[in-house]
Amino acid sequence: MLDVLRKRKRSWIIIFLLGLIIVVFIAFYGGNKFRDASSQDIAEVNGEVITQREFALHYQRALERYRDLLKGSLTPELEKNLNIRGTLLEELIQKKLVLQEARQLGLAANDEDLMTAIAQVPDFQVNGRFNKERYLQLLRANRISPGQFEDEQREQLTIQRLYSMLLDAVHVTEAEVRDRYRFEQGKINLYFIRLPINNYLSEVKLSEDEIKNFYERNKAFLKEPLKVQVEYLSYPFERFSSSAQITDKEIEEYYQANRDSKFHKPKEVKARQILLRVAPGADAKQKSDAQARANRILIEARAGKDFAQLAKQESADSTAAKGGELGWVTQEQLPAPLNKNVFSLAKGEISNVIESPAGFHIVKVEDIRDEKTQSLKEATAEITRALKKEKGKLEAARLADRDREKALAGNDFAKLAQGSGVAVNVTRPFTNGEVLPEVGQAPEFYKTALSMSPKDMSPVIEGPNAYYVLKIKQRTDPTVPPFDAVKSNIEKSVKESKAHELLQQNGKSLLEQLKKEKDINKVAQQNGLKLEETGWFLRNATLLPKVGELSELRSGGIELSAEKPFPDKIYTQKDNAYILAFKDSQAADMERFDKEKEQLTKQALAENQQQVLQRFVEALKAKAQIQVHPGALEES
Fold this sequence. Notes:
Elements: H1 2-8, H2 12-15, E1 43-45, E2 48-50, H3 52-69, H4 76-82, H5 84-104, H6 111-119, E3 125-126, E4 129-130, H7 132-141, H8 146-167, H9 174-184, E5 187-196, H10 198-201, H11 208-217, H12 219-222, E6 227-236, H13 237-241, H14 248-262, E7 264-265, E8 268-277, H15 284-302, H16 307-314, E9 325-330, H17 338-342, E10 354-356, E11 359-369, E12 372-373, H18 376-408, H19 413-420, E13 423-426, H20 443-451, E14 461-462, E15 466-476, H21 483-517, H22 520-526, E16 531-533, E17 537-538, E18 543-544, E19 548-549, E20 571-572, E21 576-586, H23 590-622, E22 626-628, H24 632-635
Antiparallel strand pairs: 1-2, 1-22, 3-4, 5-16, 5-17, 5-21, 6-13, 6-15, 7-12, 8-9, 8-11, 10-11, 14-15, 18-19, 20-21
Helix pairs in contact: 3-5, 5-8, 6-8, 9-23, 11-21, 14-18, 18-19
């Protein structure tokens, strides 16, 4: 799972290219969290700061995205392995740099650009037209101020302008795509010699003095972090919502206030589309050619050819890989003129060719759900749950506030818990970055606990499912453990480090011998080593049969050949090093290339564009003044 996630993680600079405006209402905005104005800034980028608050807001959004992706199984260990904080900081630095460059080039979006873009967002439209009341209503419902939302969208538009200018100059030729396909889809079989780290551990001998010297030199790194143990009162929302009383009048008032927004389901269609893009500024011939091609595809679709397969072969939309599937959409979610055209179709019907600013569309409606408004009776159960949840949360907040005041006046937690019918709990000692199973993902809980002194009483803290009041039971300040407590760990770590050095030295020596002898079988025999074969695999693979993943291959495939049978370096994993040598190769299937040429060209262009953007950002970083404040990331 971790490898899959790492591969799916893409820089925000690419995400911006997928659309002009992306409205993410599930993201964390505003509220009463992370408001400590005195906290140290996270970083400075050419004099512009990334504040603790800015980082915290984006961090909450990132966590929500991963929780959605992992269906609630984001563990502390997985969060640490994904390096979400470090990746996020890098993204925010990149964003600052790109915005600074765009503004210097005069590409900043103005008010007119911003209003035009916002007006095109389907969520803000009623009957296909921008509706200010709808716009403000949605922002209020998601606790976003218009100024905050518009500032963020203005930044997105500015970045979009700069990247559009960069990417307009990126092209790929058929010859380039063909050569790339020939290399990547060719197969190769390699010889390899495995050098396990364990073979070298026994050669490493450490004295007591060496271990003690390491301990003395590295006390700062061996220091154990601050740990706290807290006693806390917990006020679960569910505990109070289950007993909340809801009247018929409250249910009816809620229904009338929310009938159109929550209980009305507009007509929906399940559709697929084929899009032939036409570049902005295309001449009449280019448009005519694209329309002619669209007409040809339409004839094939109406003649009975599988629409999903046609979309995979012909569409330039991001949905092409899924057969053009749009899923269930409402009329407001589709841009004009698609909205009216698509919603006039019957089930199973295919539209005429529809022209839009993006190009030419062909849409097939696969199913239809008619418009429906739930009756009060149908909605009663849902309304009751919503009102109970709301009342439960209010009652939990009231009791938490009351008990905190009593605790400040000298009442102990056990007595307060008994009076309010809640639990008093004591955590195990924990440090920054840990998540307690009984508390879960509640950043303010941990941040507050780690900032408290033994005599402090916390404010009422809101978590995802409960309110909390904390006090410190035990606080252990950062300390260097005694030598005897860490001796065995130091010895293990130093031995592994020295064994890796021996492994590298021996591996390089064997590689030099191989280049001289030009016979890997002879080298293996002379050194008493086992010679193995990988078997056939694609040249661009990073996961080699019988070997596994080699980090050095992540940026490109293996270039060994009959002309160059030996590499210039050894390849490594955590516990092994490898000497590779070419054995045989198979040419790529070029007939398949001709069938898939168009899709391969799109893929190559997209990857070239991403490389251009990455090099651009790297160039900005190389000339920038960037300062990351030590420790600020952990404190955030």
